[in-house]
Amino acid sequence: MVGYEPGKGKHRGRLGGLVCKFARDVFRLGTGISDAIRERPPAIGEVVTFRFFELTPAGVPRFPSFVGLRDYE
Fold first, then answer.
1. Integer Cα distance of 6 and 27 in angstroms
2. Distance from C-alpha of 3 to C-alpha of 28, rounded to nearest angstrom
3. Spatial distance between the Cα atoms of 59 and 39, rounded to a whole number of angstroms
């Protein structure tokens, strides 16, 4: 994870999404994040697990969804 996106609407004032890097591409990850994590976001540089439907022709994950923080490796 390389950054944060501010929340909008019901998430105003909290974490809206995580800015993640996958291979050499950067994308936003907002779906699947619990309210607890939105209140206390992970530190920049932490590794997160996510799932996605497929890769776009540009190699960016399509429809990424947050699964959890990685506490190993």
1. 14
2. 9
3. 31
Q: What is the pLDDT of residue 23?
A: 86
Would you list the domain boundaries of the chain?
Answer: 3-69
Paired tokens of 2: 């390389």
What is the topology classification, in CATH, of domain 3-69? OB fold (Dihydrolipoamide Acetyltransferase, E2P) (2.40.50)
Cα angle: 1, vertex 65, 56; to 5 degrees = 85
Q: What are phi and psi of 13, to 5 degrees?
A: 90, 0
pLDDT at position 39, please? Answer: 93
Tokens 């950067």 — which residue? Answer: 26
User: How do the pLDDT tens digits run along the chain, 73 residues long?
Assistant: 999 999 999 999 999 999 999 888 899 999 999 999 999 999 999 999 999 999 999 889 999 999 999 887 6
